[in-house]
Amino acid sequence: MNVEEGGIPGIGRPSQARWVLMLLLSTTMYGAHAPLLALCRIDGRVPFRPSSAVLWTELTKLLLSAFSLMARRQPRLWDSLPWRQAAPFALSALLYGANNNLVIHLQRYMDPSTYQVMSNLKIGSTALLYCLCLNRRLSARQGLALLLLTGAGACYAAAGLQDPQGLLPPPPAAAMPLHVTPLGLLLLLLYCLISGLSSVYTELLMKRQRLPLALQNLFLYSFGVLMNLGLYVGGGPGPGLLEGFSAWAALVVLSQALNGLLMSAIMKHGSSITRLFVVSSSLIVNAVLSATLLHLQLTAAFFLALLLIGLAVHLYYGGR
Question: Which is nearest to 109 in space by CA: 55, 162, 49?
Answer without folding.
Answer: 162
